[in-house]
Amino acid sequence: MDGCRTGARDQSSPFVDFDRASWARLGENSPLPLTAEELEQVRSLGDEVDLDEVREVYLPLSRLLTLHVQEGGRLYRAYRTFLGANTARTPFVIGVAGSVSVGKSTTARLLRLLLARWPQHPRVELVTTDGFLHPNAELERRGLMSRKGFPESYDRRALLRFVTEVKAGRSEVSAPVYSHLVYDIVPGRRATVHRPDILLLEGLNVLQPAQSAREGGPALAVSDFIDFSVYVDANTADIRRWYVERFLRLRETAFRNPESYFRRYAALDEAAAIARAESIWAEINAPNLERNILPTRGRASLVLRKGPGHNVTGIRLRKV
């Protein structure tokens, strides 16, 4: 495969590796259906993605995803003919995984915007798994507040039920809503998807395998219902630095909101804020990344590898 790096020649690897320039050539004939203003609206705090990166990385990815959706449509029509059935096609589910502060939220929002601009699938929805975290009161009761974001802090049965209902073709499926401002589930609020062409499911643990029977978990996992998955990757040291930098920016912005769960950190001086951010990273985010999130990277269909500047430097694509 021309334009690929060493992975293309390594017959022992299930992946093909692209450098950024080679990957960008795969989308060079596709127009960029995105403005700088639209990009600003979907970009997360601290994520420096620009229009060049959208053109060189995310546009080819949206083209690849569209090919997968189209092939899924052909397979659906073949199945319908074979079975003599007249059931409607179910949504194509794309999982977006990665660490806290690595940029997976921006990736998911960008893909939602770009995919919806392709005429083949105008109805694209995005749901984050944050809504399936147990409410803080329940986490407190279970002694899990210090493990928020770990797999056990989620209502995994409810999340699995949501995805299975989406893949069953239900006309409407709803999910709880999470507020990062108050750091909790919003009582009474639901986000509803209406049988989209594509559903993007973004979260820390969407690629987790099923729990074993000894763990008392379901025989199925959310990842069993994902048609294509993207893992946003970077060196752990870089992610840690991005987390601290974002914490400092939030100290000057969102933390100052009287309703913010973290408002007590707004009064910290810079040294104390850095120390607190590094403590949270070391006690919660780093262990979760190392034990639960990073081990799922090899299960992804595609890995976006970021460099120290938060820019994508390489792409690893699973062979088909």
Notes on the structure:
With 320 residues, the chain is α/β, with parallel strands linked by helices. It has a single domain (24-263, 273-309), classed as Rossmann fold (3-Layer(aba) Sandwich), CATH 3.40.50. Helices cover 37% and strands 18% of the residues. The protein has eight helices and nine strands. The strands form two sheets. The protein has a seven-stranded mixed sheet with strand order 1-9-8-7-2-6-3. The chain is globular. The two termini are 13 Å apart.
What helical percentage do the residues reach?
25-40%
Radius of gyration: 20 Å
Largest sheet: 7 strands, mixed
**CATH homologous superfamily (4th level) name:** P-loop containing nucleotide triphosphate hydrolases
End-to-end distance: 13 Å
Category from helices, strands and their pairing: alpha/beta
